Amino acid sequence: MKKLIVYSAFLMLFAGACNLTRDVEIELPDYEQQPVVECYLEPGKPFRLLLSRSYSFFDPLGLDSSFLNKTLLQGASVAISYNGQRVVLDNQFSFEPEPLKLFNYTASEIVPATPDVEYTLEITLPDGTTITGSTVMLPFVPIDSVVVEFSPTNDTIARTLMYITDDQTKSNSYRRMLHYGNLDSLPQQDFLANDRFSTSATVAFGMGYDLSPGDTVFNTIYHITPQYYDYLESVQLAILSGFNPFAQPSPIKSNVTGTANPLGIFTCLVYDRNRTIME
Amino acid sequence: MQKLLLFISFFTFGYGTLLAQTSTNATISGVIRDDENGETLIGATVEAVGLRKGNVSNEYGFYSFTVPVATDSITLRFSYLGYETQERRLVPKGNAKLDVSLRPQGSLLEEVTIVANQLSEKVKSTEMSITTISTKEAKALPALFGETDLLKIIQLKPGVASGTEGTTGIFVRGGGNDQNLIVLDEAVVYNPNHLFGFFSTFNPDAVKDLKIWKGGFPSQYGGRLSSVIDVRMKEGNNKEYDVAGGVGLISSRLTIEGPIQKEKSSFIVSGRRTYADLITAQINRANEGNPNYNPIPDYYFYDLNTKVNFQLTEKDRLFLSGYFGRDVFKFNNEDFNFLFDWGNTTGTARWNHTFGPKLFSNTTFTYSDYRYRIRNILQGFSFRLGSNIVDANIKQDFYYQPNNQHTMRFGGNLTWHDFRVARLRAGSDDGQVSFESGEDFTGTEFGVFFSDDWAVSDRVKLNLGARLSGWNNATSNYARFEPRVSANYAVSENFSFKASYARMNQYVHLLASSGLSLPTDIWYPSTDKVAPEKSDQVAVGTTVLIKDKVLITWEAWYKKLYNQIDFIDGAELFGQTNIETQLTFGDGYAYSPLELEIEKKDGRLTGWIGYTLAWVKRGRFPVINNGDYFSPRFDTRHNLSVVALYSLNRHWQFTATYVYTSGNISWLPAGRFTFQDVQGAPFQPVVPVFGQRNTFRYPAYMRADLGIVYKFRTKRSEQDLTLSVYNATDRRNPYFLYIDVQTQPAQIGGGTIDVPTGFQAKQVSLFPVLPTITWNFKF
Predict the structure, then answer these.
(1) B752 touching A, CB under 8 A?
(2) Which run of H or E residues covers position B350?
(3) Second label for B737, Cα 20 to 30 Å away, from A179, A208, B566, B765?
(4) A54 → closest Cβ in B672, B751, B765
């Protein structure tokens, strides 16, 4: 029996050592380029929008400015309306410094923080096709507390628990993000949640015991619309299934429509953020 | 009782008078058994020589047929493939009971009795689209990791696609993996897989016989659309004690059987367990204290089959059997306590009673339970997820043969189902935070059936049957009529035309989130929103027997599927209070002009060649592909399999299998876009855009396996060493494809991130050439 186990282990190692992955040439289905909208209305910040193009999957990528120019969709007419006001966004670049974001349509007007206001988007592309969308500013959901908890087995490492209070009279969706160090870093956690199966008003978001003295951690909670939830989820699923054959592929669930056959999201950003430095 | 049957027959089919029996006939009945161990033989042939009268034993070994009363003796010939033919003489003065025991052919080298009766019975029978797998044959064939697997042998038969390499997926004639009624001693097995589908739950040492119907379904079966896989456990040797087992690369097996009371009652206990966890535990132990070492999780599976049977009286026999199997995957450390286990439990109590030479009854109570649970306990928080389906079923089945022209079956069954669907509980230990979701259901399913296998003339046979099935629960109530008809026209002793039509309904549905058979797939009941699935299948074909040795079967078929279930795009199965919001409903169809099997069952060289040319489509889902039809993953156009077993002498046997199938269908992205998200840089540079579903076909799959069996005997034992070489040509078959994003580092936003520079499609194969040796013994 002992020999058999050794033999088994040998064969398993042999199989693992075999090269079972190789490059292949494949032909993907035909694809027609689509405009892509990204517009986040953030209270206290200007109206801004990124309009770009999608590509066939195997089209070349590039880091140079000519590729960026090809990707950005310029020359469109963009306007956002709310409460009887119409804000026209000029075809003008603007940047958000941290985290770094690029927009190619900008207005000087500032997005108000008033909740429950409906916004509508109208875009006319240079070829005359159109894109429309609408969204609503959701109420602010604050972080109740961020509790630091040390490991019961090792008092030099800790974690944070972020608590919020969910309005149980309504159906709510959230996006939780957790950053270490600074907001330009890749998030340690980025996931969607909704309250449809929560049995208590208190909702907690935890993490592993991973923090040492001196570490900085950012806990962020976004209160998001169901359309934004669906869009983000479909993007996550598309990314996952693009490279994982066992995931269920998902088409992108955009909340913009129109004769231009667009992809993308038009939404408000309502969030609370807590910065904690471990002592 | 007989009057009641005549009454039912008359009002049901209007030919009751045909069943009248005269006193000028004598009925001979009995049970056909294996002479060595007393196991009943299913499908053995009995024939009155020169009278052109005969029959086949049913699934309990019982046979019955009628001859004219005479004062001269007649010869009865009993035969069964792999057994010596036996002739018995008797004078048919009146009804007679004649139990017969057939001796197995000692060795494949010994002179082989050509069992033409067995093959010619296939020519004459109304049954079509049926395949029987014997464990003896299966054990000789080369197998992945040397683990003989009956479900993988089924995949080598025409009309059956396997889905994914190495797994036990069964896609019969365009049906889904959940559309197979898999029963073990009549108890439903809801998940016939171990290790995510790489091995089946059926321990070959405990199984006597496996039959699969791909169409022309007998009316006693219902509840699934595409196939019936009937697995019968051995009853246990009622003559002497046997200990048998095997040691393989993945698992070891041990079976003990013997008489409780000689030739009257017997038992069998058979177990199997994998031992990879013993190796990984040693590796983990050796690395204890190494901070850079990540322990390997424990994984193992085991199963246990037990059965006892008692001959209570000459007319009564009682069987009790059970199956229990589990897969266990666990990982524990100081902060993390993860357990994932799943498995089936089945139990069967069966009472056979012979009312007389013409009427045989089987009363069965079965219990089935399939469940999985995932538990994760972190410091201060816990997470539990699970689903299960539990059935309790009672079934009454009568087998009645009023005369040689008619063999009737009728009866009914009632099944109570209990479902727990995606039950999730999570929260903090202090109760401050808690989440809960999932649904519970119950349902009752019933069926009543009748069929008559009617020999209209020497050339024409009909099987007329019907099943009335139904479903009831809190929100829904369905009743469905299911006609079943098949016909045989024998042009000659060796050539016949066949045709069949069968309607099936399915009241429980498997919600599977991927193309694989995962233990977390959920069984879901019919409700007011989820209507029963339905299929209509028509098949025509011919059966030709050449020189009493080679049987050629051609069939063409068309199957229409209704109320098929799929997920909406981006569906979430868990954390739902109403899972039906994630479902969408459509239709499907499949057809084949050519499903061919050439079988050679005796001689030194045996085996078969199977080929299927088929098309499979799903469509009319309102939210998928704009309602257009598309190919499901398992729409493989060509399927070819060649299986050969050659017995050189009493010691050596050589085996080979070859498989060619068109590639599976896949849904790959057509486009991509860049998504900077609220996060900005580093952003998502490549978000795939999926267009029309399932438009890409993988490269073709080809595999050749070789096997050598060396048998030897000692004074008290029979043993063999089986060398199995899986994928002998070391071909790299596609298991899956993915598109790799090639990157290079770039300075963006004050940091360094990997920026994509191009793409490369990659093919991943699962198994290279895999030689294994298995030792089997029997004492």
Answers:
(1) no
(2) strand B336-354
(3) B566
(4) B672
ipTM for this prediction: 0.90
Surface of B (380-399) touching A: CB under 8 A: 380-381
Q: Tell me the sheet residues that pair with B552.
A: B544, B598
Residues in chain B within 8 Å Cβ distance of A263: 673, 689
**3 state DSSP class of B124:** helix
Structural domains of chain B, count = 2
**Using one digit for the tens of pLDDT, what is the confidence trace for B173-199?**
999 988 999 999 999 999 998 887 788
Q: Hey, CA dihedral for A226, A192, B441, B321, is it positive or negative?
A: positive
Tokens of B630: 């598309």
Distance CA B720, CA B246 (A): 9
Q: Which of A252, A263, A265, A268 should one mutate to test binding to chain B, selecting the residue with the greatest count of B CBs within 10 A?
A: A252
- What pLDDT is attached to residue B561? 97
**Per CATH, the architecture of A35-139+252-270 is what?**
Sandwich (2.60)
Q: Which residues of B touch A184 (CB under 8 A)?
A: 680-681, 749-751
Query: Under an 8 A CB cutoff, do B424 and A30 touch?
Result: no
Given this model, what pLDDT does residue A11 score?
Answer: 41
- Distance (Å, rounded) from C-alpha B596 to C-alpha B552? 7
Contact in structure between B248 and B145 (CB atoms under 8 Å): yes
Nearest to B113 by CA among B677, B619, B712, B602: B602
pLDDT (mean) for B97-119: 63
B106 and B239 together in one domain? no
Question: Mapping DSSP to helix (H, G, I), strand (E, B) and coil, where does residue B761 land?
Answer: strand
In a domain, B725, yes or no: no
- Answer whether A233 sits within 8 Å of B767, measured CB to CB: no
Query: Coil, strand or helix: which one is A67?
Result: helix
CATH number at residue B55: 2.60.40.1120
Could you tell me if B340 and B482 lie in one domain? yes
> What pLDDT sits at residue B297?
83
Where are the domains positioned within chain A? 35-139+252-270
Mean pLDDT of chain B: 86
Q: Give CA–CA dist B11/B4, Å, rounded.
A: 11
> Residues 731..750 of B with a Cβ closer than 8 Å to A: which?
732, 736-741, 746, 748-750
Confidence grade of residue A63 (pLDDT, cut at 50, 70, 90): low
On whether residue B371 sits in a domain, the answer given is yes
Please measure the distance between the N-terminal and C-terminal CA atoms of chain A and give it in whole angstroms. 55
CATH code, domain with B255: 2.40.170.20
Average pLDDT of A55-73?
82
How many CB pairs lie under 8 A apart between chains A and B? 242
User: Chain A contacts of B572, Cβ < 8 Å?
Assistant: 233
Q: Rounded distance, CA B207 to CA B154, Å? A: 14
Q: Is B163 on the interface with A (CB under 8 A)?
A: no
B84 domain-assigned: yes
List the domain range (segments joined by +) for residue B13. 2-113
Other Cβ atoms closer than 10 A to B552: 15
